[in-house]
Structures
1.
Amino acid sequence: MSVIRVAREAYAAALPALSASLVGGLVAGLVLGGMQAELQAVPGLLVAVPALLATRGNVYGSLGARLSTGLHQGLIEPYVDAGDPRLRGAAAAALANGMLASGVAAAAVFLILTALGDAVAPLATLVAISLLSGLLSGIALTVVVVVVVFTGYRRGHDPDSLVGPVVTTTGDVFGIAFLLLSVRLVLAAGGGG
Amino acid sequence: MTTDWTVRGITRAMLPVLLVMTMVEVGSGLVLGSFEAQLYRYPTLLVLVPVTIGTAGNLGSILASRLSTAFHLGTFAFEPTDETLAGNAVATVALAVTLFPLVGAGAWLLQSLLGGAQLAVGTVLWISLASGIALAVLAVALTLGATYGAYRFGLDPDDVVIPVVTNTCDVLGVVVLFAVVQITL
C-alpha cells in the first residue's frame, strides 16, 4: 500500500521536469542529426559531444544551485546588479570552469584518438570549437539561469526546484546549437582538418 | 564553502569533480564514436542520443536527490522492504516506461518530417523503450550502490552521489543505446 503511495508521489513530482527536458533533448537531437556534415568534417567532434553537453549541465546546474542558496541565505538580492561582487564571482567562475573543462575534454579526445590511431581533427581545431561553444553557450546559460532563478524567487517559487529542469533543458539545446555555430565559425576561419 | 563566492573559491570546490566527470563523459564519447558509422547511416539514432543520455541522467539524479533527502531525514533504511526505497525504485521504472516510448516516437516523427527516417517507427520505439527500461534498472542499482557507499564511508550523499550518478547514467545511456542497436540492427 505505502510503496504504491511513495511511488505515485515520486512519479508525479518528477514527470513535469522530465517531460520538459525530454522536449529539449529531442530538439538538441534534431540539431545533432542535422549536423552530420560538420561532424564528419571534424573527426573526433562526435566523441567530445557528451562531455561538452555534460559540462553545461554540471557547471550551470551548480551556478543555479549556488544562486538559490545565496538567495535563501540573503547573500545576494534577486535583482540583476552587474556590480554585485558575489554575482559577478559566481558567473565568472561558471564561465571559466565551463570553458576550462570544455578545453580539457577536447584535448583528451585528441590525445586518446591519436593514441588509438583513429582519424582526428587537429588539436587546435577541436580546442577552438570547444572553447568557442563553451563561451557562447556559457553566456546564454548564465543569462537564463540568473533570470529564471531571480524571477522565480521574486514570484515566490523555490528556485531549487526550477534550476534542474531549466538547466537540463536549455543546456542541451544551447549546448548543441552553439556547438553547430562554433564548428561553422571555426571551419569558415580555416580551421578544418 | 558556501560563503566563498570568489572565482578562486568556487573553482577550488568545483574543478576537481568537474574534470573527473569530464573524463568519464569522454569515455561515453568514445563508445559513441565506436558506432559512428551506424549513427550516420541512421540519423534517427543520432537524434536519440542527447535525449536518451539526458533522460537517463535525469532519472538517476532525481532518484539520487530523493534518496539523499530521505537519508538526511532518517526516513530511509537499506532494506529491500523499505518503502521509500521500493517506492522510488518503482517510480523510476514507471517513469522510464512512460517517457521512453515518447522519446522514440518523437525522434522518429521529427526525423521523418525533416529528413525522412530510414528506420521503421516500431524499430525506433523498440530501441528507445528497451534502452529506457534497461537504463532505469541500472540507474536504480547504481544509485543504491553509490548512496550505500557514501553512507558507509561517512560522506554526504548530496556532494558525492548526485554528480557520480548523473554522469555515470550519461555514460550508461550511450552504452545501453549502443548495445540495443547492436542487438536490433
2.
Amino acid sequence: MHSSKKRFPVLEIAKINLRHNALLSIAVAVLLCLVTPLLIGTANLDRNAAAMPLEMFLSLIGIVLLTPVFQPEQNEEIDDLVSSKYCSTAKVHLIRTVCSAGIAALLICVFTVYMKLQSCDVAPVLALGSIADALFLGSMGMLTSALTGNTVIGYMPPLLYYVLNIGMGPKLGSFYLFSMVTGSYTAKLWLFAAGLIIIVFALFYQRLRKRRA
Amino acid sequence: MNNSIEIKGLNKFYGKKQALYDVNLSIHQGMFGLLGRNGAGKTTLMKTLATLLQKKDGEIIVCGVPIENAKEIRKIIGYLPQEFSMYPSMNVGEAMEYLAILSGLHRSERKERINALLKKVNLTEHRDKKVKALSGGMKRRLGIAQALLNNPKVLIVDEPTAGLDPEERVRFRNLLSEIAEDKIVILSTHIVGDIEATCEDIAIINEGKVIYNGTVDDLLQAAEGRVFTMTVSKRELPQLKRQLSITSMHTQGSKVHIRFIADTLMQGAKECEPNIEDAYMLYLHSSGVREILGEIGGEW
Amino acid sequence: MLLLQEIKKIVKSIPYLIFVAAIIIGLFSQSVFRFGDDPLQEPQPGSSYGFKQEEIAEQIMPAALRDLLTEFSNNNYTTYPIGFLKHVKLSEGEQAKIAEILSEITGNNKERILQEVAGISPGGSDNYTFQIGGDAMQQDGNGGFTIGSDENQQNSSEKMTFAVRDDMDYARFKELMGQADDLLGGGSNYAVDSLIGYGTVPLTYEEAKERYDLAVTSDQVTGGYARLFSDYAGVMVLSILPVFLAVILSMKDRRAKMEALIYTKETSAAKLTFIRYLALVIAAMAPVIILSYVSNIMVWSSYSGMQLDYLAPLKYDFGWLMPSVMISTAIGMFLTELTSTPIAVVVQGFWWMLDVNLGIKTVHSGYSLFRLAPRHNVGPKSLFRTQDYLDHFPDLVQNRLLMAGIALALILLTILIYEAKRKGKFGGNAFFKKAVSGIRNRKNQSQA
C-alpha cells in the first residue's frame, strides 16, 4: 500500500531511535575505531598485514552495534505500549538493524580509507571482508539477545567466538574470522551469508515471540 | 455505526494454565468497568483486547473488526498499560512525537494533535521534562494523552488509579469520564471507588470467570436486603470475623461498628443501603471465595 | 543461607551456562585435556634439546646488525610497542641518525651508507653484502646461524660490506641499539631486553637434564601441567568472562525492578554486596577447579612411580587463576553499580585485549606487575622451564596479590556506592547523566 509508506516515516523512526537508543553503542564503536590505530600500527602495511586491524579490531563494532537492537523493548512495559501501536515493532527492529549495519559498514569503510591515506595497501575487498565479519559477529549477538531476552547475555557468544578464533582459528575453516591476514577471502562469503541468515532469523524470532504470548 | 465490543466464548491459556474461561461480554459506548482482584484475569483480558495476547478460542469483534485483524484493530484502539514507561532518555514531547509516529499520524497533523492532547491532560508546561522524572499522576496523564493520539474508538485503561494520591485519582476519573462521552472506555481496576465514580456498566471477574455482568444499579439492587450494620464489642470481633463476611469496620472506643453481608437478619443488626463494595463482596462470596478486606479499600 | 541462595541464583541462570560452555570450549580448543598425549621426556645424551637464549655478544651483534640494516634499507621497521604489531617509517633526519649508528658499528662511512643503502628497493640484497669476518652469514631453519663462505660476495669489492667492527665494545653496542630503539618508539627487537632474542644457542645435555630434574623435583611434574593449564585458562577465559556474570547479575536487580525493594531491606549493604561477590567468585571458580583436575588427571597415569604433587592444580587455581577472576568480577560489579550500564564489559574487554597482546612478547614467562593474566606457556617439550618460573616467582606473587588487593578495594567502593544509593544520596550515575544531558541540551538549544 503506497499510503502505508507515508504512515511509517522510516527516516524519522530511524532518527529518533538513533538519538535515543543507539547513542551509547555508536560511541563505543567510534571509540574502538579511534583506539585501534593507537594499539596497532596502521601505516605502511602490505595487503595481508593491513587486514589485521580491520579483521581483528574493527569487526568487533559489529557486536557493539547489532547486539542491542532489541534492547529498548526488553522492558516489558515499554514493549506492551509500543506493541499496541499501528506501526509494528518488527518494522522498528528492522529499521534499527539496517541502521546499525549501515553505520558499521560506514565506519569500516572510513577506516579503510584512513589506512589508505597512511600508505597501506588496502583494497575494497578488505573492507567488505571486515564488514562480513562484523555482520556475522553482530548476528550472533542479535540472535542470543532475542532468544534470551537479555542484551548483555547477547554479548557473550560473539565474544567467545572471537576468542575461539584467536585460539584455534584456522580449524574453523569457512567460518574463520581472520583469514584475510593470510590472503584468503572465501571464508568471508560464508560469514556474510550466515550473518544475514542469522539476522533475518533473529528478527523473525523476535516477532513471533511477541505474537505467541 | 457499530460502536461496541462483542466478546463471545473467550478462552485464554498461559501454557497449561487457563487464565480466562468462557468470557461473554458486550461493551457499549461510555465507561465500562472491569472489577476484580489482582490476578483475576483483568489484565489478561485487557491485553487480549489490545492485541497483545492471543486468544485460544472464542470470538472478539471490536467495532465490527475481528480481533485477528490486529493491524486494523490497532488503528481504532488506544491502550494505557498498568505501568507506563518510555525510553529513558525521552522527554514528554519526544515521547508523544515518537508514539504519534508509531500510531500512524501524518506529520502535518502531529504537532497540532500533540499540543491539543497535552493541553487536555494538563501537561503542556512539562513538555521538556524527562518521562522518568514525572510523578505517578503525570505519567498516567501522559499515558492517556498518548493513548488518544490516533483518536481511537476504544480506550483500554488498565488499573488507571493504582498508586495515585486522592486528588490525582479524582482528576483522572474526571478526565476519563470526559473521554467516555463519545468513546468506549474500558477500565479495569481493583479499586471499587473507581467504578463508583464513573461507570454505569460493569463486569466482575474472578479467577478468570465473569461472575457479574450488568449495570451498577442492578448490582446494587441484587444486594438489597443483604447488607447490615451492627455494633459489637472488641472482644466479640475475632469470632464474628470468622462467621460473617464483614465488608467494613469502624472502631469507636471499645466498640466496633461493622458492616456485613448475610442472607437473613441477625439479632442486633440493622439493614442498610448496599454500596458497590458490599455488592462486590456479595458476588465474590457467593462464588465461594473468602475475602480479605484490605483489597477493596475498607477500613480496619 | 544467603550465600547459598545467591550461588543458586547464579548457577541456574543462562549466562552461567554460557560461561561454563565457554570455558570448556575455550580450553578444549587448546588441548588442555590432552596433556597426557605429551609426557615429559627425560633427556638422553647425544640428542638435541631445543634452544635457550644467552647473551653471547659474538652472536647477538651481527644478527642484530643484519636486521637493523635490512629494516633501514627498506625504511620499514617492525616494532611491538605495546604488544601489537606496528610498522614504523622514519623521517629523513631519523634515518640519518640510524645511519650514524650503523656507521659506528660497522666502521663504514655514514654518508655512503645513506646514499647507497637507504632508498634502495626493498628486498634488493645485492647492493651490499653482509659479513662476519669475511664469511657470509646465513640463518638456518632452527633459528641458529651458520657461517659459510660465498666466493662471489667476497670478490665484489665495489659493493659495501657490512660487518661488526672487530673492536666493537658490546656495552657500547647495546647503548647504540637502545638509541635505535628509542628512535623507533620502543618495542623493537633492538631494545636492551629484547636483544637477547638474537642469542639463540642450543641447550647442552647438562642444561636439559637440569631442567628436567627441576621439573621433576620442584614442579613434581603435575605442577608444570597445572601451570600450563593456568596459562591458557587465565588468558583465554578467566580474564574476561567473569565480568559478564558480574554485570548480568548486578543488572538483574535493575531489570526486575527490585531496586526499591532491596534497598529497604534489613541486610546491610556491605553484607549483601560481599556475599554476592563471594557467590560470583565461587560460581566462577567451581568449574575451573573441576576442569583443572580433569586436565591434570590425564597425565597422572603417564608418570606412575614418580612423586607427583596431587594438589598442584588446586594451588594454581587459587594462587594463579583466582586473582584474575577476582578482579574481573570486581570490575564488573563496581562499574555496574557506579553507572547502571554494562560499560564494565567494554572496559574489561579493552583491558583484556591489551593484556593478551602485551603478553604475546612474553608468552614464555610474563609476570609484570599489572598483568591481568600472567603467562608461562611452555609445555613438556620445553621441559616446563621451571627455572624461569622460580626466578620470577616473587614477581608473580606480587602481581597476584596486587590484583586481589585491587579487586577487594573495588568491592569496598561498590559497597560504599550501594550504601549511598540506599540513603538516596547518590543519584545513580548522576554525574554521567548530567554530562550526557548537558551535551544534549546544548545541542537542542542550538537546534531550537
